[in-house]
Amino acid sequence: MANGEEKKPVEPESALPAKPQASKSKTGFEKPQAGEAIARGEEDTASDAALAGEPSPPPVAPAKPALSTQPASPTRPTPAGTVPPPQPTQTKPVPAAHTRAEAVPVRAEAAPEKKPGLVRAAYEHPLAIRITHWVNAVSLFVMITSGLRIFRAFPSFGAKIPEHDLIDIPKALTLGGWLGGALQWHFTFMWFFAASGAVYLGYQFFSGHYRTVLFTPKDISGVWPMARHYFLFGPKPAATGQYNPLQKLAYTSTVGFGVLSLATGIVLYKPAQFSWLAFLLGGFHLTRIWHFAAMCGFLAFIPGHLIMVVLHGWSNFFSMLSGWKREPEYQE
Predict the structure, then answer these.
(1) Which of 211, 238, 273 is the last residue of a domain?
(2) Both 243 and 201 in a single domain?
(3) How far apart are CA 133 and CA 211, in angstroms?
């Protein structure tokens, strides 16, 4: 050159070692590579410590890889330039305590155990049923005993002349003392009996309680097993409800006896006003027979009803006072 300076030969760019290009962040500053950042950080830390007169921190040893307790699976040599196939990952079984859902043993539902001090009870007789029951019981007693005294005035269903007595009823079993007194007792309690019977039937119908006591065709097959148990000491059928088929037959029959006694009694009480009803019943003579037959139906029901109350114990009688029956035989 004219100035006396020598030109240095310029090496081609391909001969120079390639420097790693630092990536730029969004802010415009160069972002060093990971390896370069670590190296510069260590040098800067060492230089700062030397200037401050402090000992430089010991170099951080690279972390050792964790040793696996699983046996190493044998690897096969792979040809050059090929990627080895991925090895199957071995997973350890998770303990049952760490799982989210655990198997719970399923037990069959058993009958609830009876706790000490607790008594199982069922509310069998509502208040309306209990009141009408006792009103009817008193009314029937008065009407039957006074009716027998009325029957003594003419104890026959045949012709009056000549009179042939059907049965001689003792005076001790009658009420009223004479015909006029017996009629007063009979006609007075007739209204109590009719009113309580109407309330009883109305409550049974509107409340649906009649389903527990009404005798239906499906109960026919259960009458004989219960009769065999009561009268022939046969096996006792299983209780399926508040009343068994024989009880349903008896209680449904008493409703029929009550309706028949009222229909025939009103004809005997006012024969001229209810002559049309007497005609439907077969005349005044047959009406008197039907009235007597209804009384006989009650006389057949009452002794059996009282015997059943005694056989079933105090809890059965107490249920008609409080409405609750202790330890019922059936399941609710």
Answers:
(1) 211
(2) no
(3) 17
Lowest average pLDDT, out of 13-22, 222-231, 280-289, goes to 13-22
Contacts 24+ apart (CB under 8 A), 49-55: none
Based on the domain organization, do 329 and 218 belong to the same domain? Answer: yes
- Measured distance CA(247)–CA(313) in Å, rounded: 16
Residue linked to tokens 């508040």: 242
Pick the range with the lowest mean pLDDT from 91-100, 182-191, 239-248.
Answer: 91-100
Q: What is the mean pLDDT of residues 315-327?
A: 82
Residues in contact with 261: Cβ distance below 8 Å, sequence separation at least 6, in sequence order: 291, 294, 295, 298
Q: Which of 143, 178, 211 is the last residue before a domain boundary? A: 211
* Token reading at 306: 């009282």
Separation between Cα atoms, residue 176 and residue 143, nearest integer Å: 10
Is 152 inside a domain boundary?
Answer: yes
pLDDT digits (tens, 9 = 90+) for 226-262: 989 888 888 888 888 888 899 899 999 999 999 999 9
Please state, in angstroms and rounded to a whole number, the distance separating the CA atoms of residues 65 and 84.
21
Alpha-carbon distances, residue 311 vs 4, 86, 98, 162, 314 (angstroms): 146, 87, 62, 47, 9
User: Are 218 and 228 found together in one domain?
Assistant: yes
> Global pTM?
0.61
Q: Are residues 142 and 184 in the same domain?
A: yes
SS3 19: coil
- Residue 257 near residue 294 (C-beta atoms within 8 A): yes
In which domain, by residue range, is 308 found?
Answer: 213-332
Domain count, the chain: 2
